[in-house]
Structures are given as structure tokens and as C-alpha cells.
Amino acid sequence: MRRILHIDMDAFYASVEQRDRPELRGRPVAVGGRPESRAVVCAASYEARTFGVRSAIPMSRAVRLCPDLVIVPTDFAKYRAVSQQVFGIFRAVTPLVEPLSLDEAYLDVSENSWGEVLGVEVARRLKRAIRDETGLTASAGVAPNKFLAKIASGWRKPDGLTVIAPERMEAFLQDLPIDALWGVGPVTAKRLRAHGIEKLVDVRSATPATLQAAVGSQAGWLTALAWGRDDRRVVPDRVVKSHGAERTYAEDLRDVAMMRGQVDHLSHICGEWLLRKSLRARTVTLKVRYDDFTTVTRSLSAPGGVSDVATIARHAQQLLMKTDVATRPVRLIGVSVHNLVDPSVAFLAGDGRLPFDEDATPP
After folding, report:
1. Can you tell me whether residue 244 is helix, strand or coil?
2. Strand, helix or coil for residue 143
């Protein structure tokens, strides 16, 4: 059973603007162009949404709905920078991250760098990390598949967390109205309701001809969703080039021996992952965040590559001693492995030579 998360930042563009401009907090905000330019709303704060202001409606209409609306021009460079922060948090936990936009993604956390067994615990920690590092909130859905995870993430916005465990799946499906599905807009929902399909589970008893008339070629897909079936995998947008594990401590660490123990534990996670993936790593990196949130990284390269826990831990311990942990309290420690290579070529230099065979002449 896979553990899939869908994480969606809350009113992303508007929330970034409210974060950066305190005078906007608590006020109805819309991000986009001026109403006289026939612009549309790119994002609306939750205060604006209470007036009916939504993304994609004309800004002129938004101003009529909410005369006190504060309009802020878009700053996509800033939003992309914050998005990179958020996705960096995601990818520190799992390489299986599938972006849907700047502000939402699927994550497969069946295996994760924190070693958490429960998807809900990963979601809680991710939400906390996002808040700590960006000052923003996100809503998360946890479920056995992408379809249910996406619906769950929107269930208790903003700052929500909804879990659909396998044993709760049927009860959850029974309550879903047909237009709760993404892709089922007002027109399609109207056609389905005209055939007596008010809830998703009503699809189960509909005839193939009825579904074909309502949604055409999507009838089979809709039927699968009605039973909660969705076998799509989380597809990352890039080749996995690194893997790591890190931990933030409720109380700052001051004892170096305890820090060494944590480094060994995190190194073990990295080594086990490399073993499972049949990979070697040419670089080991240590990350330390002190109590004042200053963060430093130290790296060590191993040309032939490493994969065993003992070697990774030894390198990480050496790197730990190159930091100020002996004199400064530590809030976070992380160990990661980079420059991953296949074992069949891990021991070869770039021109095909063995790295220690300095006198060899390439063919």
C-alpha cells in the first residue's frame, strides 16, 4: 500500500504578499493586474474569498464583489524563489516529487528520509518545515493514491490535514458529490445529474451507455475513481541525483557525543537507501543548523564512490568536526549523498581509467 501525499500551498501568491507586507495581513488581497486593463485575478487571499473573489475571475468583477479589495501586481520571480524553497523541503524527504504547479505537488512517501512509517507524520513534519522555513501554510492530503490525496488536501483548507486511510476509503467515497472531482466542471456535473448521478458512488450503478453519454471516453476512468482505484505513480520531474536524511530537534543539541550518534543514524538511512537502489555516491555532505538558524554544509568527495554505512558515517563524522558544533548549540543535523553512479562504472575515472591508476594511458 503506497503512502501518497498531495500538498497544496494556501492562497500561494496572495499569502507570499501578505507575508512580505504586514500591512496586508487580515485584509482582502487579490494578485493580478488592474481592473481597467481587463486583467483577471491570479490569486485571492482567504479574506477576499469570503466576498466571492476567486482565481480567474475578471479583476473588475472582483472589485465589484469586494470594494475594499487590495490589488497587488504579480511578482513571479519572487513566487518561483519561494516555490524552490518549498520543493527543496519536499525533495529532502523523498525523491518522488511530482510538481503540478509552483504551489502543489504529489509526493510518494512510502519510503522517506525521516524513516516515518505513517504518511500523516510525514505530512505533519512537512507542514511544520514549510511554516518554519517560509512563514507560509500548506494543506495536505494523505491517501493510498493520487486521486484521493488530491481531494483530501482541499478538505480542510487553509492549513488543513486530512487522512484517508484504506479502512476509511469507502466511507469517504460515499460522501463525495460528483463535482468534487477535478475535471468535473459545472457542465459535466449538470449532464451527470441529469442522469441521476449526484454522488461519485452513483457512477457504480450507472450503465455504460449513460456514462458514455455524459462523459464520453472518460467513462472508464470515472468508473475506476468511483471505486477509489487509481494506479498512477508519482513521477518525479528530474533524475534522482542525491538522497539525504535530516532531523530538527525539539531542544538544541549541545553534547557532541549525542551529535555523533545522530550522524551515525542519519548515515545509516543514506547507506540503506543506496543499498536498496544499488547505487554508489561520490560525495557525502553534512548539514548543520545552529540555534541562531545559521546553516552550514560540508562535503567530502570519494572518487570511487561509497555505499556502505560505515564509510558514509566515517566521512560524515570527519565533516562534523569541521564545524563549530563543539561550541555552538545545534538545531538540525543532516547527512546526504550526491553524485550517484551505477556500481558498474563507479570505480572508473571520467576517461575510463581506475582512479588510482595514475600512470595508465587511456586507449
Report:
1. strand
2. strand
Rounded Cα distance, 164 and 105, in Å: 18
Active-site pick, 17, 98, 104, 246: 104
**pLDDT tens digits along 293-311:** 788 999 998 877 888 888 9
CA separation (Å) from 154 to 136, 149, 186?
Answer: 16, 9, 18
Q: Structure pTM? A: 0.65
Look up 111 and say whether it is catalytic.
no
- Give the C-alpha distances (Å, rounded to integers) separating 78 from 12, 73, 128, 129, 224: 11, 12, 21, 19, 40
- What is the rounded average pLDDT of the residues 261-266? 89
Q: How many CB atoms lie within 10 A of CB 54?
A: 15
- What are the two backbone dihedrals, phi and then psi, of residue 217, each rounded to the nearest 5 degrees? -70, -10
Tell me phi and psi for residue 240, to 5 degrees.
-70, 120
| Residue 53 burial (C-beta neighbours within 10 Å; 0-12, 13-18, 19+) | buried
ω into 158 cis (within 30 of 0): yes
Alpha carbon distance 155, 145 (integer Å): 16
